Amino acid sequence: MKIHFTKMQGAGNDFVVLDETRSRLNLTAGQYRYLADRHFGVGADQILTVRPSPAEGIDFEYVIHNADGGEVGQCGNGSRCFARYVRDKGLTDKDTIRVQTLSGVLSPKLNADGRVTVDMGVPVLDEPRVPFDATALTPTVQGNGRTWPLAFDVQGAPVTVPVAVVSMGNPHAVQLVDNVDTAPVLLWGPLIESHARFPERVNAGFMQIVGRGHVRLRVFERGTGETLACGSGACAAVAAGIRLGLLDSEVHVDMHGGRLTIAWSGQDSDSLFMTGPATTVFEGQIDIPDAA
Ligand SMILES: N[C@@H](CCC[C@H](N)C(=O)O)C(=O)O
């Protein structure tokens, strides 16, 4: 099957964007994996598929697949690329677009400076809803937040790391590190991603605090591996840092692919907002094998 695609990136987190506003492609998990493959396909961290409005008052729907072919509920950088895509393709002329996702309705807003701001909803810090199995663990309480001792084996040696667990519509485990450049992201990331206490697996964040309004972050993403940026990971890390009393309500998050700005009051009743770039890289056509 030959399909048309648009390649996009948001702070270096890259996407293959597919248009299903007129008809469904009905791709299999194997075909999503093929598209994401950097050697045989286009290459992407995630595939973002845009669909027509599912209901009155909603402009579009989109679904997200990780590079491993699994469908997921949330993608911060993808939500900004979605907004840029539907505007640049002339699918809408709105500045603020309401879109249905697996984890709820998002409203990305295109700013005059080219960046996109997304209301990412209220961070979920209630462990069972992340979901995180805290059975028989005792948290360390700090500020209005808490961390949990996550134990795992690294090459036969036991390690216990304090993590804050947060859902932004997808699960995150955030730990503090002295320096993201030397943090064991590639060694520990896969062990945390598939840790038994996270029944839906987890995105593993490593956050270095530079100041109360500035952090550096690396994220080993569930279903993809380390990416140059993770939007929901930036939101989760800042939400955790604010609750732990370490960060102010507006924070610049520097990742290897670029900077996002996250704003949150820290209150359970208030949404968190993410602002950052979204760029089209190129367009093309690719033949996907039926049996990919
Ligand atoms: N890169 C994304 C997150 C994509 C989904 C994630 N890997 C998961 O499995 O939850 C972002 O920018 O948020």
Which ligands, by name, code or SMILES, are bound?
the ligand N[C@@H](CCC[C@H](N)C(=O)O)C(=O)O
Dominant shape: globular
Question: How many DSSP-defined strands?
Answer: 20
Helix content: 10-25%
Name of the CATH first level of the largest domain: Alpha Beta
Name the CATH architecture of the largest domain: Roll
- Mean pLDDT, to the nearest integer, reads 98
CATH-defined fold name of the largest domain = Diaminopimelate Epimerase, Chain A, domain 1
Radius of gyration: 18 Å
Structural class: mainly beta
Strand content: 35-45%
Order of helices and strands: EEHEEEHEEEEEEEEHEEEHEEEE
What's the structural domain tally?
A: 2
Low-confidence stretches: none
Number of helices: 4
Task: Give the CA-CA distance, first to last residue.
Answer: 11 Å
Name the quaternary structure. single chain
Instruction: Report the CATH superfamily of the largest domain.
Output: Diaminopimelate Epimerase, Chain A, domain 1
For the largest beta-sheet, the strand count, sense and barrel status come to: 12 strands, mixed
Function: Catalyzes the stereoinversion of LL-2,6-diaminopimelate (L,L-DAP) to meso-diaminopimelate (meso-DAP), a precursor of L-lysine and an essential component of the bacterial peptidoglycan.
Pfam families: DAP_epimerase
Subunit structure: Homodimer.
Family: Belongs to the diaminopimelate epimerase family.
